[in-house]
Design a protein that fits this description.
With 463 residues, this protein is an alpha/beta fold. It folds into three domains: 211 residues, FAD/NAD(P)-binding domain, CATH 3.50.50; 112 residues, FAD/NAD(P)-binding domain (3-Layer(bba) Sandwich); 114 residues, FAD/NAD-linked reductase, C-terminal dimerisation domain (Enolase-like, domain 1, 2-Layer Sandwich), CATH 3.30.390.30. 33% of the residues lie in helices and 26% in strands.
Length: 463
Protein backbone atom coordinates (compact mmCIF):
# COMPACT_ATOMS: atom_id res chain seq x y z
CA UNK A 1 0.00 0.00 0.00
CA UNK A 2 1.38 3.44 -0.98
CA UNK A 3 2.40 5.60 1.96
CA UNK A 4 0.68 8.96 2.03
CA UNK A 5 1.78 12.21 3.69
CA UNK A 6 0.57 15.76 4.03
CA UNK A 7 3.99 17.05 3.00
CA UNK A 8 6.96 15.42 1.30
CA UNK A 9 10.13 17.49 1.25
CA UNK A 10 12.82 16.50 -1.26
CA UNK A 11 16.21 17.42 0.19
CA UNK A 12 17.37 17.52 3.81
CA UNK A 13 19.60 20.58 3.75
CA UNK A 14 18.87 23.59 6.00
CA UNK A 15 15.83 24.63 3.96
CA UNK A 16 14.42 21.14 3.62
CA UNK A 17 14.92 19.79 7.12
CA UNK A 18 13.71 23.02 8.75
CA UNK A 19 10.62 23.04 6.51
CA UNK A 20 9.93 19.41 7.45
CA UNK A 21 10.34 20.04 11.18
CA UNK A 22 8.14 23.16 11.16
CA UNK A 23 5.42 21.42 9.16
CA UNK A 24 5.47 18.55 11.65
CA UNK A 25 5.26 20.99 14.56
CA UNK A 26 2.12 22.41 12.94
CA UNK A 27 0.45 19.00 12.99
CA UNK A 28 1.12 17.71 9.50
CA UNK A 29 2.30 14.21 8.60
CA UNK A 30 5.70 14.83 7.02
CA UNK A 31 8.39 12.91 5.17
CA UNK A 32 11.78 14.14 3.99
CA UNK A 33 13.61 12.45 1.10
CA UNK A 34 17.41 12.52 1.24
CA UNK A 35 19.88 10.55 -0.91
CA UNK A 36 22.93 11.20 1.29
CA UNK A 37 23.76 8.75 4.04
CA UNK A 38 23.37 11.64 6.49
CA UNK A 39 20.98 14.55 6.88
CA UNK A 40 21.93 18.22 6.66
CA UNK A 41 22.67 18.60 2.97
CA UNK A 42 25.71 20.39 1.57
CA UNK A 43 25.76 22.88 4.45
CA UNK A 44 26.23 20.45 7.32
CA UNK A 45 28.18 17.78 5.44
CA UNK A 46 30.53 19.49 2.98
CA UNK A 47 29.86 23.21 3.28
CA UNK A 48 29.11 25.69 6.06
CA UNK A 49 29.86 23.53 9.09
CA UNK A 50 33.07 21.71 8.07
CA UNK A 51 34.50 24.89 6.55
CA UNK A 52 33.90 26.82 9.77
CA UNK A 53 35.53 24.03 11.75
CA UNK A 54 38.66 24.31 9.60
CA UNK A 55 38.53 28.10 9.69
CA UNK A 56 38.51 28.02 13.49
CA UNK A 57 41.28 25.42 13.69
CA UNK A 58 43.47 27.29 11.22
CA UNK A 59 42.94 30.56 13.11
CA UNK A 60 44.00 28.82 16.32
CA UNK A 61 47.11 27.49 14.56
CA UNK A 62 48.06 30.91 13.27
CA UNK A 63 47.52 32.51 16.67
CA UNK A 64 49.71 29.91 18.38
CA UNK A 65 52.37 30.31 15.70
CA UNK A 66 52.40 34.10 15.39
CA UNK A 67 49.91 35.87 17.65
CA UNK A 68 50.37 34.60 21.20
CA UNK A 69 53.75 36.28 21.68
CA UNK A 70 52.10 39.73 21.64
CA UNK A 71 50.10 38.63 24.68
CA UNK A 72 53.18 37.46 26.55
CA UNK A 73 52.42 33.81 25.86
CA UNK A 74 55.50 31.97 24.70
CA UNK A 75 54.75 28.78 22.82
CA UNK A 76 57.62 26.71 21.49
CA UNK A 77 57.69 24.12 18.76
CA UNK A 78 54.23 24.66 17.30
CA UNK A 79 53.52 22.05 14.64
CA UNK A 80 50.57 21.09 12.49
CA UNK A 81 48.76 17.76 12.87
CA UNK A 82 46.54 18.05 9.80
CA UNK A 83 45.12 14.55 10.23
CA UNK A 84 43.86 15.45 13.71
CA UNK A 85 42.50 18.77 12.46
CA UNK A 86 40.57 16.97 9.73
CA UNK A 87 39.35 14.36 12.21
CA UNK A 88 38.04 17.11 14.50
CA UNK A 89 36.23 18.66 11.55
CA UNK A 90 34.48 15.34 10.91
CA UNK A 91 33.56 15.06 14.59
CA UNK A 92 31.89 18.47 14.38
CA UNK A 93 30.04 17.42 11.22
CA UNK A 94 28.98 14.14 12.81
CA UNK A 95 27.56 15.84 15.88
CA UNK A 96 25.53 18.24 13.73
CA UNK A 97 24.05 15.68 11.36
CA UNK A 98 23.15 13.39 14.25
CA UNK A 99 21.44 16.38 15.81
CA UNK A 100 19.17 16.69 12.78
CA UNK A 101 18.37 12.97 13.00
CA UNK A 102 17.35 13.51 16.62
CA UNK A 103 15.12 16.43 15.64
CA UNK A 104 13.42 14.29 12.99
CA UNK A 105 12.68 11.60 15.58
CA UNK A 106 11.52 14.18 18.13
CA UNK A 107 9.10 15.77 15.66
CA UNK A 108 8.04 12.47 14.02
CA UNK A 109 9.38 13.37 10.58
CA UNK A 110 9.85 10.27 8.40
CA UNK A 111 13.24 10.11 6.69
CA UNK A 112 12.89 8.37 3.33
CA UNK A 113 16.41 7.38 2.27
CA UNK A 114 17.03 7.51 -1.47
CA UNK A 115 16.75 9.68 -4.58
CA UNK A 116 13.43 11.37 -5.08
CA UNK A 117 11.73 12.08 -8.42
CA UNK A 118 8.39 13.79 -8.91
CA UNK A 119 6.12 11.61 -11.05
CA UNK A 120 3.14 13.96 -10.99
CA UNK A 121 1.52 16.48 -8.71
CA UNK A 122 1.12 14.67 -5.41
CA UNK A 123 3.32 11.70 -6.39
CA UNK A 124 6.98 11.07 -5.57
CA UNK A 125 9.06 8.05 -6.54
CA UNK A 126 12.06 7.18 -4.33
CA UNK A 127 14.23 4.50 -5.93
CA UNK A 128 11.20 2.61 -7.22
CA UNK A 129 8.89 3.06 -4.24
CA UNK A 130 5.86 5.31 -4.68
CA UNK A 131 4.66 7.89 -2.14
CA UNK A 132 1.84 10.41 -2.26
CA UNK A 133 1.43 13.81 -0.63
CA UNK A 134 -0.89 16.81 -0.68
CA UNK A 135 2.14 19.07 -0.94
CA UNK A 136 5.60 18.44 -2.42
CA UNK A 137 8.46 20.79 -1.48
CA UNK A 138 11.64 20.88 -3.59
CA UNK A 139 14.64 21.80 -1.42
CA UNK A 140 17.46 20.20 -3.37
CA UNK A 141 20.02 22.98 -2.92
CA UNK A 142 22.90 23.72 -5.26
CA UNK A 143 26.17 22.38 -6.62
CA UNK A 144 29.53 23.87 -7.57
CA UNK A 145 29.56 25.73 -10.89
CA UNK A 146 31.81 24.13 -13.54
CA UNK A 147 34.29 26.08 -15.70
CA UNK A 148 35.01 25.08 -19.31
CA UNK A 149 38.60 23.90 -19.72
CA UNK A 150 39.02 23.12 -16.02
CA UNK A 151 38.11 19.51 -15.15
CA UNK A 152 37.54 18.78 -11.48
CA UNK A 153 39.03 15.55 -10.09
CA UNK A 154 38.76 16.54 -6.39
CA UNK A 155 42.47 15.81 -6.00
CA UNK A 156 44.52 18.36 -7.95
CA UNK A 157 41.57 20.45 -9.14
CA UNK A 158 39.01 20.61 -6.37
CA UNK A 159 35.70 22.21 -5.54
CA UNK A 160 34.91 23.28 -1.99
CA UNK A 161 34.20 19.61 -1.25
CA UNK A 162 37.73 18.50 -2.14
CA UNK A 163 39.31 21.56 -0.54
CA UNK A 164 37.86 20.43 2.79
CA UNK A 165 39.48 17.00 2.48
CA UNK A 166 43.11 17.72 1.53
CA UNK A 167 45.51 15.48 3.46
CA UNK A 168 48.54 17.72 2.95
CA UNK A 169 49.11 21.46 2.80
CA UNK A 170 49.82 22.46 -0.82
CA UNK A 171 52.89 24.58 -1.42
CA UNK A 172 50.88 26.76 -3.79
CA UNK A 173 47.10 26.88 -4.05
CA UNK A 174 45.39 28.81 -6.83
CA UNK A 175 41.81 29.83 -6.13
CA UNK A 176 39.66 30.54 -9.18
CA UNK A 177 37.02 32.99 -8.01
CA UNK A 178 37.25 35.75 -5.39
CA UNK A 179 33.87 35.07 -3.84
CA UNK A 180 32.95 33.97 -0.34
CA UNK A 181 33.85 30.28 -0.72
CA UNK A 182 37.17 30.90 -2.44
CA UNK A 183 38.35 33.48 0.08
CA UNK A 184 37.26 31.46 3.11
CA UNK A 185 38.92 28.23 2.03
CA UNK A 186 41.90 30.05 0.56
CA UNK A 187 42.44 31.70 3.95
CA UNK A 188 42.32 28.29 5.67
CA UNK A 189 45.17 26.90 3.60
CA UNK A 190 47.16 30.14 3.68
CA UNK A 191 47.14 30.06 7.47
CA UNK A 192 48.28 26.44 7.40
CA UNK A 193 51.26 27.33 5.23
CA UNK A 194 50.23 27.45 1.57
CA UNK A 195 51.02 30.31 -0.77
CA UNK A 196 47.63 31.37 -2.12
CA UNK A 197 46.89 33.13 -5.41
CA UNK A 198 43.34 34.23 -6.18
CA UNK A 199 42.33 34.69 -9.83
CA UNK A 200 39.13 36.66 -10.43
CA UNK A 201 37.43 37.59 -13.71
CA UNK A 202 36.08 40.86 -12.32
CA UNK A 203 38.23 43.80 -11.26
CA UNK A 204 37.28 43.42 -7.57
CA UNK A 205 36.69 40.74 -4.95
CA UNK A 206 33.28 39.66 -3.58
CA UNK A 207 31.17 41.72 -5.99
CA UNK A 208 28.12 41.64 -3.71
CA UNK A 209 29.94 43.67 -1.04
CA UNK A 210 29.88 47.43 -0.68
CA UNK A 211 32.81 48.60 -2.85
CA UNK A 212 34.56 50.53 -0.07
CA UNK A 213 34.38 47.49 2.20
CA UNK A 214 35.61 45.16 -0.56
CA UNK A 215 38.63 47.39 -1.25
CA UNK A 216 39.63 47.51 2.41
CA UNK A 217 39.01 43.77 2.73
CA UNK A 218 41.34 43.01 -0.17
CA UNK A 219 44.10 45.15 1.36
CA UNK A 220 43.84 43.20 4.62
CA UNK A 221 43.94 39.82 2.85
CA UNK A 222 46.93 40.94 0.77
CA UNK A 223 48.70 42.03 3.95
CA UNK A 224 48.06 38.54 5.32
CA UNK A 225 49.83 37.04 2.31
CA UNK A 226 47.19 36.38 -0.34
CA UNK A 227 48.07 37.37 -3.92
CA UNK A 228 45.35 38.61 -6.26
CA UNK A 229 45.10 38.56 -10.06
CA UNK A 230 41.98 40.55 -10.85
CA UNK A 231 40.47 41.08 -14.29
CA UNK A 232 41.79 37.69 -15.38
CA UNK A 233 40.17 34.49 -16.64
CA UNK A 234 41.33 30.88 -16.57
CA UNK A 235 40.85 29.25 -19.98
CA UNK A 236 42.57 25.91 -19.50
CA UNK A 237 44.16 23.54 -16.99
CA UNK A 238 46.64 20.72 -17.52
CA UNK A 239 47.12 18.25 -14.67
CA UNK A 240 50.48 16.48 -14.24
CA UNK A 241 52.10 14.38 -11.52
CA UNK A 242 53.63 17.44 -9.88
CA UNK A 243 50.67 19.79 -10.09
CA UNK A 244 48.49 21.85 -12.39
CA UNK A 245 49.38 24.39 -15.09
CA UNK A 246 46.68 26.99 -15.70
CA UNK A 247 46.32 29.17 -18.77
CA UNK A 248 45.32 32.65 -17.63
CA UNK A 249 44.27 35.49 -19.92
CA UNK A 250 43.30 39.11 -19.23
CA UNK A 251 39.51 39.34 -19.05
CA UNK A 252 39.48 42.19 -21.59
CA UNK A 253 41.88 40.53 -24.00
CA UNK A 254 45.64 40.20 -24.20
CA UNK A 255 48.46 37.71 -24.00
CA UNK A 256 47.97 34.55 -21.96
CA UNK A 257 50.34 33.44 -19.23
CA UNK A 258 50.85 30.17 -17.39
CA UNK A 259 50.35 29.83 -13.64
CA UNK A 260 51.50 26.68 -11.86
CA UNK A 261 49.88 25.31 -8.71
CA UNK A 262 49.97 22.22 -6.53
CA UNK A 263 46.21 22.40 -5.99
CA UNK A 264 43.56 24.46 -7.77
CA UNK A 265 40.31 25.37 -6.00
CA UNK A 266 37.48 26.09 -8.43
CA UNK A 267 35.08 28.44 -6.66
CA UNK A 268 33.29 30.56 -9.26
CA UNK A 269 29.88 30.12 -7.70
CA UNK A 270 27.10 27.58 -7.37
CA UNK A 271 24.11 26.58 -9.50
CA UNK A 272 20.72 25.10 -8.56
CA UNK A 273 20.59 21.33 -8.34
CA UNK A 274 17.44 20.55 -10.28
CA UNK A 275 18.51 17.65 -12.50
CA UNK A 276 16.82 14.25 -12.21
CA UNK A 277 13.78 15.54 -10.34
CA UNK A 278 11.39 14.96 -13.24
CA UNK A 279 10.57 18.67 -13.43
CA UNK A 280 10.35 18.86 -17.22
CA UNK A 281 8.11 15.80 -17.44
CA UNK A 282 5.76 17.21 -14.80
CA UNK A 283 5.83 20.67 -16.41
CA UNK A 284 7.47 22.72 -13.64
CA UNK A 285 8.79 25.96 -15.15
CA UNK A 286 12.49 26.86 -14.83
CA UNK A 287 14.17 30.18 -15.56
CA UNK A 288 17.20 30.80 -17.80
CA UNK A 289 19.55 29.74 -14.98
CA UNK A 290 17.56 26.54 -14.36
CA UNK A 291 16.21 27.87 -11.09
CA UNK A 292 12.66 26.82 -10.30
CA UNK A 293 10.20 29.63 -10.89
CA UNK A 294 7.92 30.32 -7.94
CA UNK A 295 5.44 32.98 -6.89
CA UNK A 296 5.73 35.07 -3.73
CA UNK A 297 4.48 32.09 -1.70
CA UNK A 298 7.01 29.53 -3.09
CA UNK A 299 4.42 27.87 -5.32
CA UNK A 300 5.48 26.62 -8.77
CA UNK A 301 3.18 26.71 -11.79
CA UNK A 302 2.02 23.16 -10.92
CA UNK A 303 -0.51 23.13 -8.04
CA UNK A 304 0.77 21.33 -4.96
CA UNK A 305 4.48 21.63 -5.89
CA UNK A 306 6.64 24.22 -4.13
CA UNK A 307 10.34 25.10 -4.03
CA UNK A 308 12.66 26.91 -1.61
CA UNK A 309 16.33 27.65 -0.97
CA UNK A 310 19.12 27.51 -3.53
CA UNK A 311 16.77 25.87 -6.06
CA UNK A 312 14.93 29.19 -6.53
CA UNK A 313 15.98 32.80 -7.10
CA UNK A 314 17.69 34.81 -4.41
CA UNK A 315 20.91 34.62 -2.41
CA UNK A 316 22.25 31.10 -1.94
CA UNK A 317 22.41 31.25 1.85
CA UNK A 318 21.46 28.55 4.35
CA UNK A 319 19.60 30.97 6.60
CA UNK A 320 17.59 32.31 3.65
CA UNK A 321 16.57 28.72 2.88
CA UNK A 322 15.64 28.09 6.52
CA UNK A 323 13.42 31.16 6.69
CA UNK A 324 11.74 30.14 3.44
CA UNK A 325 11.19 26.64 4.81
CA UNK A 326 9.49 27.99 7.92
CA UNK A 327 7.40 30.50 5.95
CA UNK A 328 6.23 27.83 3.50
CA UNK A 329 5.36 25.33 6.23
CA UNK A 330 3.31 27.98 8.00
CA UNK A 331 1.48 28.91 4.81
CA UNK A 332 0.65 25.25 4.17
CA UNK A 333 -0.85 25.20 7.66
CA UNK A 334 -3.03 28.21 6.86
CA UNK A 335 -0.84 30.78 8.60
CA UNK A 336 0.83 33.89 7.15
CA UNK A 337 4.45 32.87 6.61
CA UNK A 338 6.68 35.62 5.24
CA UNK A 339 10.35 36.33 4.46
CA UNK A 340 11.73 39.89 4.44
CA UNK A 341 14.37 39.62 1.73
CA UNK A 342 15.57 43.17 2.42
CA UNK A 343 17.15 42.19 5.74
CA UNK A 344 18.89 38.89 5.04
CA UNK A 345 22.47 39.21 6.35
CA UNK A 346 25.50 37.76 4.61
CA UNK A 347 28.86 36.92 6.17
CA UNK A 348 32.36 36.09 4.95
CA UNK A 349 34.03 34.04 7.70
CA UNK A 350 37.62 35.06 7.09
CA UNK A 351 39.70 36.86 9.70
CA UNK A 352 38.60 39.55 10.08
CA UNK A 353 35.05 38.70 9.13
CA UNK A 354 32.89 40.71 6.75
CA UNK A 355 29.14 41.04 7.21
CA UNK A 356 26.41 43.03 5.52
CA UNK A 357 22.67 43.55 5.53
CA UNK A 358 20.55 45.77 3.32
CA UNK A 359 21.79 47.93 0.48
CA UNK A 360 25.27 48.95 -0.54
CA UNK A 361 26.30 52.52 -1.28
CA UNK A 362 26.45 51.67 -4.99
CA UNK A 363 22.88 50.35 -4.94
CA UNK A 364 21.59 53.49 -3.26
CA UNK A 365 23.34 55.70 -5.79
CA UNK A 366 21.92 53.68 -8.68
CA UNK A 367 18.42 53.96 -7.20
CA UNK A 368 18.76 57.73 -6.77
CA UNK A 369 18.17 57.53 -3.01
CA UNK A 370 19.68 60.33 -0.92
CA UNK A 371 21.56 58.87 2.02
CA UNK A 372 23.92 59.69 4.86
CA UNK A 373 26.97 57.63 5.86
CA UNK A 374 28.29 56.90 9.33
CA UNK A 375 31.60 55.08 9.82
CA UNK A 376 33.66 54.07 12.82
CA UNK A 377 37.01 52.22 12.83
CA UNK A 378 37.74 49.29 15.13
CA UNK A 379 41.12 50.91 15.77
CA UNK A 380 39.22 53.35 18.00
CA UNK A 381 37.31 50.61 19.83
CA UNK A 382 38.82 49.62 23.17
CA UNK A 383 37.63 46.02 23.07
CA UNK A 384 39.01 45.46 19.56
CA UNK A 385 42.39 46.85 20.63
CA UNK A 386 42.45 44.60 23.67
CA UNK A 387 41.70 41.63 21.44
CA UNK A 388 44.48 42.59 19.05
CA UNK A 389 41.96 42.93 16.21
CA UNK A 390 41.94 46.61 15.24
CA UNK A 391 41.47 46.17 11.46
CA UNK A 392 38.27 47.23 9.75
CA UNK A 393 35.28 49.45 10.42
CA UNK A 394 31.50 49.67 10.72
CA UNK A 395 29.67 51.53 7.95
CA UNK A 396 26.00 52.48 8.20
CA UNK A 397 23.82 53.94 5.46
CA UNK A 398 20.67 55.84 6.43
CA UNK A 399 17.99 57.65 4.49
CA UNK A 400 18.98 61.32 4.25
CA UNK A 401 15.45 62.50 5.04
CA UNK A 402 13.99 59.93 7.44
CA UNK A 403 17.22 58.58 9.02
CA UNK A 404 15.87 55.04 8.54
CA UNK A 405 18.67 52.46 8.22
CA UNK A 406 19.05 51.24 4.64
CA UNK A 407 22.25 49.24 4.86
CA UNK A 408 24.92 48.09 7.30
CA UNK A 409 28.40 46.82 6.49
CA UNK A 410 31.01 45.55 8.94
CA UNK A 411 34.61 44.57 8.28
CA UNK A 412 36.17 43.50 11.53
CA UNK A 413 36.28 41.09 14.47
CA UNK A 414 33.14 38.97 14.95
CA UNK A 415 31.31 40.90 12.23
CA UNK A 416 28.99 37.94 11.66
CA UNK A 417 27.65 38.31 15.19
CA UNK A 418 27.61 42.11 15.24
CA UNK A 419 25.46 42.30 12.09
CA UNK A 420 22.54 40.66 13.92
CA UNK A 421 21.87 43.86 15.89
CA UNK A 422 21.57 45.81 12.67
CA UNK A 423 19.45 43.18 10.91
CA UNK A 424 17.04 43.33 13.85
CA UNK A 425 17.07 47.14 13.80
CA UNK A 426 16.25 47.17 10.09
CA UNK A 427 13.55 44.51 10.50
CA UNK A 428 11.73 46.88 12.84
CA UNK A 429 12.37 49.96 10.71
CA UNK A 430 14.82 51.58 13.11
CA UNK A 431 16.66 54.79 12.39
CA UNK A 432 20.35 55.43 12.92
CA UNK A 433 19.26 57.60 15.85
CA UNK A 434 17.45 54.63 17.41
CA UNK A 435 20.66 52.59 17.36
CA UNK A 436 22.71 55.56 18.60
CA UNK A 437 20.36 56.13 21.54
CA UNK A 438 20.44 52.46 22.59
CA UNK A 439 22.83 51.84 25.47
CA UNK A 440 25.65 49.47 24.47
CA UNK A 441 27.80 47.63 26.99
CA UNK A 442 31.34 48.84 27.58
CA UNK A 443 33.85 47.65 26.64
CA UNK A 444 32.36 45.75 23.70
CA UNK A 445 32.77 45.48 19.96
CA UNK A 446 29.13 46.55 19.64
CA UNK A 447 30.14 50.05 20.72
CA UNK A 448 31.60 50.46 17.22
CA UNK A 449 28.06 49.97 15.87
CA UNK A 450 26.71 52.67 18.18
CA UNK A 451 29.53 55.04 17.22
CA UNK A 452 28.86 54.49 13.51
CA UNK A 453 25.20 55.30 14.16
CA UNK A 454 26.26 58.49 15.93
CA UNK A 455 28.56 59.26 13.00
CA UNK A 456 25.58 59.31 10.61
CA UNK A 457 24.68 62.60 12.30
CA UNK A 458 28.33 63.68 12.61
CA UNK A 459 28.56 63.23 16.34
CA UNK A 460 30.70 60.15 16.98
CA UNK A 461 32.32 60.45 20.38
CA UNK A 462 35.57 58.51 20.08
CA UNK A 463 37.04 59.75 16.80
Amino acid sequence: MTQSFDVIVIGAGPGGYVCAIRAAQLGMKVACVEKRATLGGTCLNVGCIPSKALLQSSENFEEASHGFAEHGIVVGGVSLDLARMQARKQEVVGANVKGVEFLFRKNKVTWIKGTGRIVAAGQVDVDGTAYTAKHIVIATGSESMPLPGVTVDEKRIVTSTGALELDAVPAHMVVIGAGVIGLELGSVWRRLGAAVTVIEYLDRIVPTLDAEVATAFQRILAKQGMTFRLGAKVTGAVVAEDGVTLTVEPAKGGAAIEVKADVVLLAIGRRPFTEGLGLEAVGVTLDERRRIKTDAHFATNIPGIYAIGDAIAGPMLAHKAEDEGVALAERLAGQAGHVNYGVIPSVVYTHPEVAAVGRTEEELKAAGIAYAVGKFPFLANGRARAMGSPDGFVKLLADKTTDRLLGAHILGPDAGTLIAELALAMEFGASAEDVARTCHAHPSLNEAVKEAALAVDGRALHI
